[in-house]
Amino acid sequence: MLKAAKCVNRHMRKLSGCMGRLTESFMGIKYAEERLKVPHICCAYVRLVGCFGAEMRSTECKAETDTMLDFIRNVMGNFVDSTCGEFSEETDRCSKLGKPPKRKPSEKVPKSILYPLFDIINSIP
User: Fold this and answer.
1) 123 in a domain, yes or no?
2) Least confident of 51-60, 61-70, 85-94
3) Is residue 31 part of a domain?
4) pLDDT for position 28
5) Is the torsion defined by CA of 96, 99, 39, 15 positive or negative?
6) Residue 74 lies in domain
7) CA pseudo-torsion sign 35, 85, 97, 100
8) Would you state the pLDDT for residue 1?
């Protein structure tokens, strides 16, 4: 695990691109149909795991990639298992769902993913 953490730290710039795309995705999800908001959140997580995996495999840290992805899956596991149902890495539901709406061009992308997540929660009646 320590080797994986060192690799993540060395390649934080690449991985922050994955987080930036997740944040932008969350910003658009608040404009999705109410019934699609949770599936879009779940699919954004699936894309994040895929992005992290692809970025890490493109470095000298290939051997540590699975350890890092397992850690992410373990941390997020209960939420994903109890909330996402079929919208997971093991199915094709996310590819069939399509992409969420885009954020409005006038919206500034925050540095923290929490603000867009709060906006999604607040947009659900």
Assistant:
1) no
2) 61-70
3) no
4) 96
5) positive
6) 36-98
7) positive
8) 67
Residues 45 and 80: their CA atoms lie apart, in Å, by: 9
Residue 113, in any domain of the structure: no
13-55, pLDDT tens digit by residue? 888 888 899 999 999 999 999 999 999 999 999 998 899 889 8
Task: For residue 94, tell me if it sits in a domain.
Answer: yes
Inter-residue contact 90 to 40 (CB < 8 Å):
no
- CB distance 15 to 8 below 8 Å: yes
> Under 8 Å CB-to-CB from 118, ≥6 apart: which residues?
none
Question: Could you give the number of structural domains in the chain?
Answer: 1
Percent of the chain with pLDDT over 70: 98
Helix, strand, or coil here: 10? helix
SS3 content of the chain, % helix, strand, coil (to 5): 70, 0, 30
